[in-house]
């Protein structure tokens, strides 16, 4: 039987002061134990039934679980047809990768989440008073000091990876939501590096990951400003590499993801942050026009 320094996932789930936190692929929740407030990040399939019983009786969540299981191979098939998404491996357990990347970042003094304990079914963190950059960028603009701090951190991560020619140091899921802004220290930190990258040249991985970032910031009101400030940090050769992977999608691919988004919105009962803008031909052309201005 495993002995942990902190309460196990099963023990934490028994506390009534448990608070769910936003995350797309995992169950994440905070528990106040009195002397310390901890965050547990667990694999969705491992604890969904438990947390559903303790946190919600909503049938919508159970339906979503079934559909997610059935639809996974279909989604993986269509994702494999998207050129700029061909940088990551499809695996079920990403906790080992997340733990490893965070440890490497911490060794190099790259501001990032610190794992207190890696348990069999969860990663345990100390709760931080913070807000993710997705929320900040919805209410601020591209000239905000917060966005500058995000760009500084992304640059630091990319520079470390390039200087060592070590793709493990790249943030494999370069989205604003995967960075936190600490409200007490006004510092940006990186979180959620839980994706396995393919064995590809560092330059190619960097270009594909950077393109994902451009697609995500394009959704904000100041999208062009966010993109331009990010691209100013890159060399022309790096921008050319990004441009190489931004191709129009097959019609069946864009139709599938459009339909998938509509179904998910119905299941969630509200419009949710979606990725349909990644597959919109208009956005593909627009991002290419922005890239061309910097080449």
Report on this model:
It is a single chain. By secondary structure, the protein is an alpha+beta fold. It has helices spanning 9-12, 44-55, 59-79, 95-107, 133-139, 145-164, 202-217, 223-231, 236-244, 251-268, 281-293; strands spanning 18-21, 26-32, 37-43, 88-89, 115-118, 122-126, 130-132, 179-182, 187-190, 196-197. Strand 1 and strand 2 form a beta hairpin. Helix 3 (59-79) packs antiparallel against helix 10 and helix 7 crosses helix 9. 28% of the residues are buried.
Structure keywords:
295 residues; 10 strands; globular
Put the structure in a nutshell.
With 295 residues, the chain is an alpha+beta fold.
Strand order of the largest sheet: 1-2-3-6-5
Structural class: alpha+beta
Strand content: 5-15%
Largest sheet: 5 strands, antiparallel
List low-confidence stretches.
45-49, 52-57
Radius of gyration, whole Å: 19 Å
Q: Assign an overall shape.
A: globular
List the total number of helices.
11
Quaternary state reads single chain
Terminus-to-terminus distance = 58 Å
Written as H for each helix and E for each strand, in order along the chain, the element string is HEEEHHEHEEEHHEEEHHHHH
Average pLDDT value? 86
Number of strands: 10
**Helical percentage:** 40-55%
């Amino acid at each position: 039987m495993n002995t942990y320094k902190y309460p196990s996932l099963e023990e934490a789930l028994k506390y009534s002061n448990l608070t769910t936190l936003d995350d797309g692929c995992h169950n994440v929740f905070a528990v106040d134990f009195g002397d310390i407030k901890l965050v547990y990040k667990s694999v969705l399939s491992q604890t969904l039934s438990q947390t559903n019983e303790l946190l919600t009786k909503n049938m919508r969540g159970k339906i979503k679980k079934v559909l997610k299981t059935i639809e996974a191979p279909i989604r993986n098939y269509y994702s494999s047809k998207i050129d700029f998404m061909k940088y990551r491996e499809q695996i079920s357990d990403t906790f080992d990768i997340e733990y490893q990347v965070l440890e490497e970042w911490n060794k190099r003094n790259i501001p990032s989440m610190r794992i207190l304990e890696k348990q069999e079914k969860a990663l345990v963190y100390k709760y931080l008073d913070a807000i993710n950059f997705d929320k900040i960028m919805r209410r601020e603009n591209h000239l905000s000091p917060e966005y500058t701090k995000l760009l500084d951190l992304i640059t630091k991560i990319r520079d470390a990876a390039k200087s060592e020619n070590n793709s493990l140091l790249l943030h494999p899921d370069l989205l604003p939501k995967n960075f936190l802004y600490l409200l007490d220290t006004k510092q940006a930190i990186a979180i959620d590096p839980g994706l396995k990258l393919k064995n590809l040249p560092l330059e190619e991985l960097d270009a594909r990951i950077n393109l994902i970032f451009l697609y995500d910031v394009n959704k904000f009101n100041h999208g062009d400003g966010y993109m331009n400030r990010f691209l100013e940090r890159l060399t022309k050769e790096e921008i050319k590499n990004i441009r190489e992977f931004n191709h129009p999608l097959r019609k069946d691919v864009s139709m599938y993801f459009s339909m998938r988004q509509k179904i998910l919105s119905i299941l969630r009962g509200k419009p949710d942050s979606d990725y349909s803008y990644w597959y919109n031909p208009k956005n593909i052309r627009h991002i290419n026009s922005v890239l061309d201005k910097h080449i």
